[in-house]
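Exercise 7b. Backbone tokens:
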């Protein structure tokens, strides 16, 4: 949000507050204005409440869809664990063998890098 937008937002908020205060003063001072403003306010609040309810319903649905998507992705990830992990229940000999093979691969990679750099 840039500073102009923030200033406009604050200015609009001030004007709304000022207008509401002026309307409140009119309502207190003039009984006819009171009836007119209160009926207008009831109609507008009802309309605003309806709009907010519709918007809230669509926002709620969007949020539910987002949460469902995230949860389904997480379940899919848990169903298919990465292939690089070694189960902890594997026999100690298998784990040692995997560690040795990993070390050999690292050595081969280092040798390949060395050969590439020499060329």
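Sequence design result:
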């Amino acid at each position: 949000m840039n500073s102009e937008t923030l200033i406009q937002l604050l200015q609009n908020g001030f004007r709304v507050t000022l207008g509401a205060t002026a309307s409140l003063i009119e309502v207190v001072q003039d009984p006819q204005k009171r009836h007119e403003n209160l009926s207008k306010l009831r109609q507008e609040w009802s309309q605003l409440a309806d709009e907010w309810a519709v918007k809230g319903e669509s926002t709620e649905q969007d949020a539910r869809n987002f949460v469902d998507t995230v949860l389904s992705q997480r379940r899919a990830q848990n169903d298919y664990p990465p292939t690089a992990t070694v189960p902890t229940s594997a026999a100690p000999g298998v784990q040692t063998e995997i560690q040795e093979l990993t070390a050999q691969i690292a050595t081969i990679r280092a040798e390949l890098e060395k050969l590439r750099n020499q060329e």
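Instructor comment: The mean pLDDT is 77. The two ends are 54 Å apart (CA to CA).
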